[in-house]
Structures are given as structure tokens and as C-alpha cells.
Amino acid sequence: MDLDKYKEILDTITRNKSRSFLTGFGVFCGVFMLIALIGGGRGLKELLQKNFDGFATNSAMIWAQPTTKAYKGFRKGRMWTMDYKDVDRLRHNVPQLDKITPVLFCTSTSAVHGDRSTSCSVRGTTPDMRFINDPLLRYGRYLNRLDMTLTRKVCVIGKRIYKELFPGGGNPCGKTVRIDGVYYTIVGVDYRDGGINIGGNADTSVMLPLTVVQQAYNRGNDIDMIAVTGRGGVKMSTLAADIRRTVARAHYVDPDDEQGVMVFNTEVLFSILDNLFTGVNFLIWLVSTGTLLAGAIGVSNIMMVTVRERTTEIGIRRAIGATPRMILSQIISESVILTAVAGMSGILFAVAILQMLEMGTTTEGIVAAHFQVDFRTAAIAATLLCILGGLAGMAPAWRAMSIKPVDAMRDE
């Protein structure tokens, strides 16, 4: 390693500190934006994806709404409800469906344990619901078939209910809560926070066996909603019409009444999310790369000015035997080092900011989203910087090579 060469490069860069700082600042901003936007976009995507955590991507929700079309003597605007037989109808008429889960919703009420109480929403469902909206169980288990068959008064409570009824922590399974005058034994704690909400937030919900809700709230065979999933390789969008037709005909609703029989396909949500972040990633790279190129052009312009100021020096070097290759190497090295130092500073600053964002989204030791970029991305950014630095120094270096000693004397 030629230390004298690098000392000379450092001396040249620091000779005009303000100009070198402003030149490097453009590169710094470009790299900072690139890394920060990539990491920020990744963290934001992860935060949004957590809203879909545990939710089946090939699922759909069916519920009844007032009709918007007259049908078989019934006027539009008619209120109607689904019943438990619709589950068997769907299973028989739409064999492409895998899981078919009825759901009952109850009015918001309160859960009481000892001298503490909290508001909650009650939902009745079947054990198959975990295949559609998978719970994050911190304690205990989910509802099972025996709970349904034996009509056990058991429940799975949400995160917020657990924290407010049991502020001391610990496993609450086996303890009881009172809801609308009925005592239920806790068998599990669902620790999901947010996500796709069906009939209320997951953290304030109490899940009961469907058969228990039917008896406790005198709901009979009525069903508020049916959640379904398709078999492997089946797109729910291709089944929506068959699902609507099966349910509608049994209740004298026009099969073409999309508002009367609401079929919400979650596949749409996932496709929207993917398309959104495809566009966001493209915008991130477009803006960051543009800023980075602007910084590289700034480096090239400043190096051109530096070469002009050093015309005499370069001419004397040529006169005493310096080859064009030596001059070329000198100028390109200065450009690469200036770009690399500014760029690495931008990477380090962006990583520090992303680390603070990651720490800000951490609760109870659980990281909500990872904002950091991986080593591969940082390595690619550093390599890109060196390439841009070399390219930025090419034009000034060629100009320096073309300087002749005679021209240098005239410039003096």
C-alpha cells in the first residue's frame, strides 16, 4: 500500500473542507434515503402484514344484509338471517370449500373476575375457526369438539381482558369469569393484538363454543356470519358466485344480489397489500437512486473544478515523468474515497435511525416490526457507491490525463 499516495489524497480532499463537505453531503443524503426508505418500507410492510397474521389467505366471510332487489314476490329492502342449515348447504353444494365455520355475535357486555371488570364482546364459534383466524395462544388451548358437544361453559379471552382482569399476570386457565350472569372457565388466552377483526377487536373478545352461545343467548339456529376457506389451489374469487347462489336461493334472495348476500373475499385484501408495496418499493428505489445519482454528479463536477485548479500541478507531474495511468488513478481514487466516506456515513446514520424505530415498536420484549436492512442490502449499497465514485471521477480523470506540460506552463 502506497501511504504517500493516500496522504496526498487526504490532503487534497481536506484542502477545501467546505467544498468537500458539501460535495459529500449530496452522496450522504442519497445513501441515507436509500437505506432509510428500504428499511422503513420493510418495517411498515411488516406492521401492516401483522394485521393479517394467522388469517387464511384463501378465506371469505358471508353475512346477510337487507336485499337490494325484489325476488319471487318479496320486496327489496327485506331483512333476513342465515341459519345453521346454510353450513350444510355450502358443504354439499360447494365441495371446493374446506372449512365452513358459523359465527354468532353478541352485544358488547362486561367480563367480571373478583372485584375487577372490563368491557368485552362475546363471540360464539366452532373449533375450526382457528384454521381461518389462527389465535396466538399465550396460555392454555383453543376451543375443541368436546366443548361443543358437551356444551361446556368455557372461554378463550383476549389480551386486553387478561391484562385488566389479571393485572398480576400468571396463567389464568382454570379460573372463571362472569359474563351476563353466567360463569365461564378460562381455557386459553389469545394474545393477538389488532389484526383482521371479526365482530370486534381480538384483544377485547371472549370466544365461546357456538352451542353455548345458542343456549345462553337464546339464538336458536340463527347464524350471523359464516367464515369459509377454500381447498388447496382454489381461489375464493372463483367460488364467490356459487356461495352467494347457494345461500340466496334458500332464503328467497336474488342470487345476483351482491349486497343482499355479502361475500367478502379476503384474497382482495392480500392482493391490494402486495400491489401497494410493489409500488412503494419502486418509488423508494426511484427516489433514492435519483438522489444518489445527483450526488455522484455533484462529486464529478467538484472533481472537475479541482482538476482545473490543479492544472499546473498535474502539468509538472507529467513533465517529471508521471504517466497518464498515474494521473488517472490519482483522480479516480480521490473521487472513490470521497464518495465512499460520505456514503458509509449515510449508511451508518440510516442504520442508527432504523434501530431507534425498531426499539420504539418493541413492547414487552416483542419486536412489532423489523426496520433494519440486512447485510446484503448494505453491501450492495456500499458496492454501488464505489462504482458511482469511480464513474464520477472518470470525466475529471480524462481531462487531467489530457493536460500537457506546455499547456500547464501557459495556464501559470
Essential attributes:
15 strands, 412 residues, single chain, two-stranded antiparallel ribbon, alpha+beta, elongated, 51% helix
Describe the protein.
Helix 10 (324-360) packs antiparallel against helix 11. The protein has helices at 3-15, 17-50, 85-93, 145-149, 159-165, 210-216, 240-250, 267-309, 311-319, 324-360, 375-401, 405-411, and strands spanning 59-64, 82-83, 97-105, 109-113, 116-125, 137-140, 154-158, 176-179, 182-190, 205-209, 222-223, 225-230, 261-265, 362-363, 366-367. It is α+β, with helices and mostly antiparallel strands. It has 12 helices and 15 strands. It has a 6-stranded mixed beta barrel with strand order 4-5-10-7-9-8. Strands 2-11 form a two-stranded antiparallel ribbon. Strands 14-15 form a two-stranded antiparallel sheet. 51% of the residues lie in helices and 18% in strands. The mean pLDDT is 81. The longest helix has 43 residues, at 267-309.
Task: Compile the SSE list and pairings.
Layout: H1 3-15, H2 17-50, E1 59-64, E2 82-83, H3 85-93, E3 97-105, E4 109-113, E5 116-125, E6 137-140, H4 145-149, E7 154-158, H5 159-165, E8 176-179, E9 182-190, E10 205-209, H6 210-216, E11 222-223, E12 225-230, H7 240-250, E13 261-265, H8 267-309, H9 311-319, H10 324-360, E14 362-363, E15 366-367, H11 375-401, H12 405-411
Parallel strand pairs: 5-10, 7-9
Antiparallel strand pairs: 1-12, 1-13, 2-11, 3-5, 3-12, 4-5, 4-8, 6-9, 7-10, 8-9, 14-15
